Each structure stands twice: as C-alpha cells, then as structure tokens.
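User: Hello, can you help with two protein structures?

Assistant: Certainly.
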Amino acid sequence: MSDDSNEVKLFALSTCVHCKNTKQYLEEHGVDYKCVFVDQLEGDERKAVLEEIRTHNPKLSFPTLVCGNGRVIVGFHKEDIKEALQL
C-alpha cells in the first residue's frame, strides 16, 4: 500500500515556462514527484484530470503543485515550494 502523504504531483502544460521552471526546481532538489502534462491528455482521461485539478485549484491555472501534506502551490514560487516540501 502506498503512502500518499508524501506524494507530490505536478499538473503542468508542456509549453509553459513556469511549469518547466517548477519541474527543474523539483529535480534540482531531488524531489520525487509525478508530472502530468494536461495538454497531452485526451478524452475521459483529460476530463478526469481537470476535475482533480479543479478540487485543488478552481481557476485551473498552471503549474499546480499538489503536495502530499495538503499544500497546493499555484504558479512557480520557489519559497512556497521550499517551505511546503521542507527543502
């Protein structure tokens, strides 16, 4: 059984510079995370992911970073990411 309390999920767009910066920042700090490029999804899968994002970020803006501890960071904000993930 996996422990979701430490799971980090990045909802991003493949063409978004802020999303790329967030990915790079997480990788530079050795954060284990799952990245979902929403613009590369189709059909029901895309619909389901958008609904999931909407529960965390009703504006559906990107990047949306969902931390296992319940914190949600919208946009590329290094200090918020650092604090939320205790980097």
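That covers the first. Now for the second protein you mentioned:
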Amino acid sequence: MFAIIIRVLFAVFCIVTGAYFAEGFGHPFYPEVWGVIWGAMWATAILMLEWGLRRTPPKGLIAGSIGLLVGLILANLITSTVLSFPFSPEMSLILRVGIALALGYLGMMVSWRKREEFRVFLPHLSHDEEKKWKILDTSVIIDGRIADIAETGFLEGVIIIPKFILNELQKIADSSIPLRRKRGRRGLDILNRMQKSGSLEIVIEEKDFPEIKEVDSKLIQLARNLNGTLVTNDYNLNKIAKLQGVSVFNINELANALKPVILPNEELKIRIVKEGKEPNQGIAYLDDGTMVVVENARGLIGEELTVEVTSVLQTSAGRMIFGQQQKRAGKSRPRSRDNE
C-alpha cells in the first residue's frame, strides 16, 4: 500500500510540473492541457521503467547505469558545442533534451546488452547472480527449520515469500481445526522471526498467477520466471519441480545428509517405545528421529537396551536402522501372576 501511495504521488507531481512549465512556452492551444499530457506520459514512462527493473540482476543494473552516465556525459559535451550557435530558447531546450535522451538511452541499452563484459571490472558478480533467489513454500515455513538454516548463513541469496503463500498461511491460521490453526500460526511466527533477523534479506513477492489455481504450480512458475531456487520439504513438489527443470533445495534431504553415519556392527543405546509391525519387533528412535527396528524386543517397551546394528536402509522418506539385542542396560522387573 505504501508503494502504491508513493507511485500515485509521483504521478501527480509529474502532471503538476508539466502543467506548470507548459505555461512558460506560451502555446496557443491550451498549454495547461498539453502540460498535463506530457507530465502523465513522463510519469508513465518512469513507472514502467521501475517495473521493468524490479527483477533485473545487479550486474545488469550496474552496467546500464554506467552506460547511461557515459551517454549523458557525451550528450553534455555535444550540446555545449552545438548550442554555441544562435538558437532560440525553445530550440536550444529541445536539442539539449533530445540529445541527452538519445545518447543516454543508447549508452544504457548497449551497456546492458554487453553486461557480461563487466565481469572483468566486477568480479564479485557471478554469472549466476540471478539464481540466488530462494522461494519458500508453505510446508517449509511451517516446518520451521528454514529459519535456523538461514540464520547460520548456509542459505545464500534473497529469500522470496510469495504473497499467495502468505494468503495460504493466513487461511490455515484462521482454520476452525485446532491442529491446523496451530500449524498456520507457527508458520507466521517463523516468518516474523526471520524478518526481525538483521542478517536475512526477505522480499514479499506481490506477483500472482490468477490463471493458475494450484499453489504448487504457482510456485513452480514463479521460480521459473525468477530463475530461482524453490525451497521445500514437500516430496511431491520436489519431484514435479525437478521434472520441469526448476532448482530445488529440499530441507529433508539436507537433514538426512547431516545425520551421523552409522555402520553395521556398531552399538547403539536406545529405549524401546512401541511394538513393531512384524512379530517380536520393538521400535526405538534416535535423537534425530531415525527409526530403529530391534528384533526380539516386542516385550521390552520402556526399557533401555544396547543393540548391535545389523543393517541400514536409506529410503526417500528417511533412514531406518535394523539391529538385534546385545545386552540389557537394566533388568526388567519380573512378572508375577498376582500382578496380572
């Protein structure tokens, strides 16, 4: 809303300025009207230029600015020579503005098209600068681990929060289902925490795709338009995005990669928490959430065991460890028929 107000005020300023200066030319046919028209055209051109530069890579902006500066300097040198000849004030103004606009435009466009040559002068701007946009989806925001990853500095670039993702989070937070409402509010809290962090650059993307109904499809289209990376922990979205050539940063894959390596014959100290699906199996979990399936531990729920790892299975959903009981960490209390 603030940006819209600023743009409206700028347009009004251009129109008023055009009407004011038009009176000085003494145009015989409604000078104020012509001034308003020229002011409106000038405001429209500037606003369109601002809109077009929103997603221009920094290298392109720097190259275009240098070209514009060089063009204006050349225009000043030329007009200082040309205007030494006797011209009327109106003709002098037209020549000065026309030459400045022409050379400024040519310098900016030529430099922008040759922006790759500026790598010699700007080595810190990489060829893939535009690929550093990181676009977050709903699942990774609600998950919450993205905030810790971003604050550690491992998530490089600008973090993009699409407006339609904010709308979806708001709908989830306003849900009548308590668990769903809690998840939505957690996602909003995570975003507030990330915005308050001084080390992160977060941009709210206003662009939407009304012709696309599904949120996942909108995310993929936005990532393709920005040539950015989609950050998610949604398995299906991850696969679909990669099929369409979109770069994906999967939080679950990162978490699996950071888990400590466990090899067969290693010993683990665990606590059995529930029964397994197969007969005589007991289930335990490591601190990182990895499931441990222990043979012949079905009746040892609540007890601590030291198990020997027999095999490790890596799946798309995570990692599973299979082991067998080696020795008891503590003795279970014997049952008696009186207690049954």
